[in-house]
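Reading is simple: each integer encodes one residue's backbone shape. An example follows:

___
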Amino acid sequence: DIFSYLDKFGLYYFYPPLSYYFFAFFQFFLQFISPTYIAWMDSLRSSYLNGLEGQAVDYFKSTPNPHLLKDLFIAKIPLLIFDVASILVIIKMIKEKILKKESIILWVANPVIFYVAYLFGQFDIIVLFFILWGFYLIRNHTKLAMLAFGFAGALKTYPFIIVLPIALIYGKDIKEKLKLIIIAFTPFVISIIPTLINSPQLILFTFFPKNIFHYSQPLEGWEKYSQLIKYGSLALSYSVILFLSAFIKLKDKWRTSIGISSIVVLLALTLAGRTHFHYLIWEMPLIILWFRNNLK
């Protein structure tokens, strides 16, 4: 149970359990590439636990590493693997005439993807692979596609905001809609079983980052009411989108689901609190799929 382990050190958990297991799997093999890699990572963790605060450069100074550039590259290998895998999915869509050839340029030369994955070091690129793969599969294999979306949500929970409308669009009746939702949540549910068994009191944090409950800032006047208006607008807008997804039938379900998903993500980025620039990467695969498919 990774959350119990992190809780012993008083650390916040920012992501669902599967993300920690996922990177532990990769690091087991990456340690054989560089003898200094794991030791350096442990030193960085020790610096944090000892109270060091600051930017990345401060941590690098506190843990001198003669192989810094090599170990930084090694740390990015999982991101590179899934970036390449995403490119292969796009190439497959191009070969099947789903997308135009220019789509590959929009991905490879995308400054948002480059910044978030390789400069900022966020692993959203892995999540995007499963989203791309899901939209490729959903044309002919709906259940497998929902499973792919489910793996995306088990790594970072934001894909679940598009899972619900997609399931409502593709499900023929209430029973099938519920079945698709259950399939999508299966990877997440399986990944939290160790936490559920060993530390049920931490189960809430498998879906919501622990630090969000420790963040507080006094709000008064318009600042306070504007937050209520924003979240109220987001909840109302999302409810309307779910209603339309369930009851309005359009011939092209694939294009409809991409458009609805794009709207949902933009709404979240616009109205949700504590959003950051790097969250813009969530929109990238949807933009590529929508506009390229639209320019036939």
Notes: The chain has a mean pLDDT of 85. Residues 233 and 239 are 10 Å apart (CA to CA). The chain has 16 helices and no strands. The radius of gyration is 21 Å.
